[in-house]
Design brief:
The structure holds two protein chains of two kinds.
Chain A (H helix, E strand, L loop, with lengths): L3 E3 L4 E4 L4 E7 L4 E9 L6 E6 L3 E5 L2 E6 L4 E6 L8 E9 L5 E3 L3 E6 L1
Parallel strand pairs in A: 2-11
Antiparallel strand pairs in A: 1-3, 3-8, 4-5, 4-9, 6-7, 7-8, 9-10, 9-11
Chain B lengths: L4 E3 L2 E4 L5 E6 L6 E7 L5 E8 L2 E4 L8 E4 L6 E5 L8 E8 L10 E2 L3 E5 L1
Parallel strand pairs in B: 2-11
Antiparallel strand pairs in B: 1-3, 3-8, 4-5, 4-9, 5-6, 7-8, 9-10, 9-11
Classes of the chains: A mainly beta, B mainly beta.
Chain lengths: 111, 116
């Protein structure tokens, strides 16, 4: 059973629209949640972290966490072509330094 | 360049040879992680090290793979007797070790291993 699940996509969104990326996790002991962006052939880059229930906003990005539903999402407002990438959801379990990653959602912003 | 440095960026080996991948963490970072990424797959944790200590190697295959982070010098991921299934991108990441920031990793550009 996968511990972190994401829709692999591809997800296509028109430029200027809101892109919504979703992630579910299986372990209720999960403590911290992260979104990494990975351009093709490049390294992952942290774009958002969220630790408590609710919303966290940073510029055009909003992370949403619902621990009761074991669900974390990333919203990208005013999507730009430069947002086209694979978005990796990652979870850190309590007492454990390592991250468990989902397989990623490939996002394409259509000009 | 103060980022995580990995080398080589690309490595080609024949089956049965050894591969050595090196990683220098960001300045001031004492924690190093190695992840493997197969084509079209997510990142899989391999090992977490601090200077001279392996903290968590639960993701390392039991045979042929080893890792170290010596007191001086880079962290090294060593793969002995490589097989075609070892072909992947190997990413190193580092963190400052502040538990409040656990999970906020800085990744290197990766080492892409191809086994012929």
């Amino acid at each position: 059973q996968k511990e972190v699940e994401q829709n692999s996509g591809p997800l296509s969104v028109p430029e200027g629209a809101i892109a919504s990326l979703n992630c579910t996790y299986s372990d209720r002991g999960s403590q911290s949640f992260f979104w990494y962006r990975q351009y093709s052939g490049k390294s992952p880059e942290l774009i958002m972290s969220i630790y408590s229930n609710g919303d966290k906003e940073d510029g055009r990005f909003t992370a949403q966490l619902n621990k009761a539903s074991q669900y974390v999402s990333l919203l990208i407002r005013d999507s730009q072509p430069s947002d086209s990438a694979t978005y990796l959801c990652a979870v850190n379990y309590f007492g454990n330094e390592k991250l468990t990653f989902g397989t990623g959602t490939r996002l394409t912003i259509i000009p | 360049n103060a980022g995580v440095m990995q080398n080589p960026r690309h490595l080609v080996r024949r089956r049965g040879q050894e591969a050595r991948l090196r990683c220098s963490p960001m300045k001031g970072h004492s924690h190093v992680y190695w992840y493997r990424q197969l084509p079209e797959e997510g990142l899989k944790f391999m090992v977490y090290l601090q200077k001279e200590n392996i903290i968590d190697e639960s993701g390392m295959p039991k045979e042929r793979f080893s890792a170290e982070f010596p007191k001086e010098g880079p962290s090294i991921l060593r793969i002995q007797q490589v097989v075609r299934g070892d072909s992947a991108a190997y990413f190193c990441a580092s963190s400052p070790g502040d538990r409040g920031q656990a999970g906020e990793l800085f990744f290197g550009e990766g080492s892409r291993l191809t086994v012929l």
